[in-house]
Amino acid sequence: MKISRVLKNSIACELGIKSGSQVLAFDGHEMVDLFDYDFYNGEEEFVLTIKEGSEVVDYEIEKDFDEDLGLEFEDTFKIRQCKNKCIFCFVDQLPKDGRVRETLKIKDDDYRHSVIYSNFITMTNMTDEDFDRIARLNLSPLYISVHTTDDEVRQMMMGRKYDDSINERLEFLAEEGIEVHAQIVYCPFVNEDLEDSIEDLAETCASLAIVPVGLTKNSNPNLKPVTREIAENVIKLVEKKQKHFLELYGTRFVWAADEFYLIAEKNIPPHKNYEDYPQTGNGVGLLSKFDKAFFDELKNFEKNSKDIEIGNISVATGMGTLEFIKEKAKILTDKFGGTINVFGVENEFFGRSVTVTGLVVGSDIINQLREKDIGERLLISSVMLKDGGDSGKDDLFLDNMTFEQFQKELKTSVIVVDNSAKDFVRKILKKN
After folding, report:
1. Which of 105, 118, 223, 288 places its Cα 20 to 30 Å from the Cα of 296?
2. Which H helix or E strand runs over 429?
3. 142-145 β-sheet, strand order
4. Closest-CA residue to 99 (of 350, 346, 345, 318)
5. Is 51 helix (H, G, I), strand (E, B) or coil?
């Protein structure tokens, strides 16, 4: 990688290393990306190989572990995209009219992004050298899409053949001390070896999420949705295994996504059942976490309830969490007065079977709320927008509608709520 800058008074500066030179290797291992630099920058002794013009120079580095070499780089790595043809791939289910946000079309299957962003990867595009590098650089934790530990079924679900056994790969990572969080996208009548897979993964992984298959109006016609009865059976199995693992390992290990409980119309388990919330990125325990934080934050406002005016406001949410948000809105209006209209937005863009708030698009909100009494302001969740921030400015909905266009169309003040109960309560009880 090419050096863009050498920091003043740094080790590299004292060695006479110049910007424009290239770092070739550390201890004889090729420098692939910044992970190599970050790892060896924390080591005390290693050999740094630099190419300066046509000359290759080895520098024997000795330093304290917290001393910085002082190098910055101009190169970034190219994202490894997924080569699978999964039968349930959400990207392949996107609308064909081109309205969807471009970033949603990227099939990211890069193990480095798994470490950085907790993205789930399949590992099917990885080589033996990649696994050795993960072990050597201790790239952990990793988030792995497993779906089943039966290799024949897994290959069918992923639409491609591969030589590696998923169990053997996970065993290697476990032996090397790499923490793995796994997920199974459960497709009714397809990966029905659910209990066997849970047992297998408990041997090598730190946690496991069971997630219902998401089906849009462009989904594989051979896939079946998760019905109430199916959701109840999955919950029953997961809770049985949780009890077993809690006694055996001191952790529940496996969790069903909140969506299973919503489909089954069952109460979400209490806060304590989710331990340290290892799978919130999969929608596991988010409602329980929100619930606890909601009541914790509410206490901060109860002493000054006379000074709070909610007024007449509205909240837009996905159909899956409609009743949950309505319940929270009623608690607030019962305590502080005012009106909170909670609107569940049917997902016409992706299909009505899609009920999660994060996939609600701007055009659907406008079309369904345009004639409604929204009141003084409308609250929407930041998960509907590109960057998940709470400003809204310059953000895009998944249908490529800008926040500015959205607010102009609705002709009302729109407040973006950070994806947390704390901000939800504050934005409703304080007009900020």
Report:
1. 118
2. helix 421-429
3. 120-121, 142-145, 180-186, 207-212, 254-256
4. 350
5. strand
47 and 28 in contact (C-beta within 8 Å)? Answer: yes
The three state secondary structure string of 322-348 is: HHHHHHHHHHHHHHHCCEEEEEEECCC
pLDDT single digits (tens) 342-395: 999 999 999 999 999 999 999 999 999 999 999 999 999 999 998 544 445 558
pLDDT given for residue 421 in this prediction: 96
**17 touches 24 (CB < 8 A):** no
Rounded distance between C-alpha atoms, residue 417 and residue 415, angstroms: 6
pTM for the model stands at 0.90
Residue type, 226: V
Q: Which DSSP state fits 81? A: B
Tens-digit pLDDT profile for residues 221-277: 999 999 999 999 999 999 999 999 999 999 999 999 999 999 999 999 999 999 999
- Is the CB of residue 149 less than 8 Å from the CB of residue 168? no
Residue, of 185 and 104, whose pLDDT is higher: 185
Residue 73 tokens, joined: 């780089």
The label of the residue with tokens 């006479």 reads 16
Q: How far is CA 75 from each of CA 4, 31, 376, rounded to the nearest angstrom?
A: 9, 12, 48
Give the type of residue at 352: R
Taken in order of first residue, the domains within the chain and their CATH numbers are 3-73 (2.30.42.60), 91-284 (3.80.30.10), 290-429 (3.40.50)
35: left (phi over 0), alpha (psi -120 to 50) or beta: alpha
Q: Residue 337, Cα to own-chain centre: how many angstroms?
A: 36
Question: Is the CB of residue 214 less than 8 Å from the CB of residue 90?
Answer: yes
pLDDT above 80: residue 431: no
Nearest in space to 121 (alpha carbons), one of 86, 146, 102: 146
Q: What is the pLDDT of residues 7-30, one digit of tens each?
A: 999 999 999 999 999 999 999 999
Question: What gap in Å lies between CA 218 and CA 377, rounded to an integer?
Answer: 34
Calpha distance 32→29 (Å, rounded): 9
Cα 314 from Cα 307, distance rounded (Å):
20
CA 269/CA 180 separation, integer angstroms: 24
What pLDDT, on a 0 to 100 scale, did the predictor assign at position 388? 44
Question: What is the reported pLDDT for 222?
Answer: 94
Query: Across the chain, which distance is largest between two alpha carbons, in Å?
Result: 75
Sheet holding 339-345, edge to edge: 339-345, 312-318, 377-381, 413-417
**Residue 276's CB: how many other CB atoms inside 10 A?**
8
